[in-house]
Amino acid sequence: MTRVAWLFPGQGSQQVGMGRALAQAYPAAARAFEEANAALGWDLRTACWDGPADRLDLTVNAQPAIVTTSVAALRAALDAGLHADDPVCLGHSVGEYSALVAASALGLADAVRLVRRRGELMQAADGAGGMAAVIGLDAATIERAVSGSGVVVANDNAPGQVVISGPLEAVAAAGEPLRSAGAKRVIPLRVSGAFHSPAMRAVAPDLRRAIDAAAWSALRLSVIANVDAEPHEHAHDFLELLERQVWSPVRWVASIRRAADLGATSFIEFGAGNVLTGLVKRILPDARTADVSDPASLKQAIAGQR
Fold first, then answer.
1. Which structural domains are found in the chain, ordered by start?
2. Is 196 a catalytic site residue?
């Protein structure tokens, strides 16, 4: 059997109804939503299942919703018989917290409280920032085109799919030099700030206090970090890594390639949708992929491991 990488999506994957079908079919998934509700003291489950979308899309709500749904999907899959032979874990941005729950470094209750606080801090940060997706250019070319503008590469998601971040006016102005450099499209994103950019440094001290206050346990699985695209075996590493992550680029291409270097040939995404497995196919065209977002996809993922 080949090594598997477990993937956990980030903000933007949220959708009304996420996790409902899994929770109705698998008690382990239902318990994840119950745990999150109890930890947060409000009805996250209803926000996930019934919306409305504008409430779910708020950063402060979306982040705990995404982590809870991913953990619910993983628990359902394990209960249903998914193999778990030394997988390597990695999550995109807030999905890294889901990966740490999967690897037993954080309990779900601590994780949702932590990302709720992360969402509060990010949502309250300077609203004069924005982000845009750049289609058709690699990260190095983008960095050269926007050098000195205050705009940075925030997410290196896949070849030809990169997200930039920075002051709103600078992000808007970056369209012209990027198109001149060969970008096919520059698409503004509906976000409340310049995430994964130096603008988020201001939230780092408060976020670090919340990270330090969480109950941490030993990692049982390796987790590849967004910040350095390297596998980590010690939970204590993530106290600094998660603080840096909020203002540093998500090195997703390098992270997926690192997972492949570690022997991963199969990638399974847990949560709402299949964005990350789509990115994997662009990074590693020969990789096997599956996602677990509902009972039907869960059964397909298990069948694919046989």
1. 3-125+198-304 (3.40.366.10), 129-188 (3.30.70.250)
2. yes
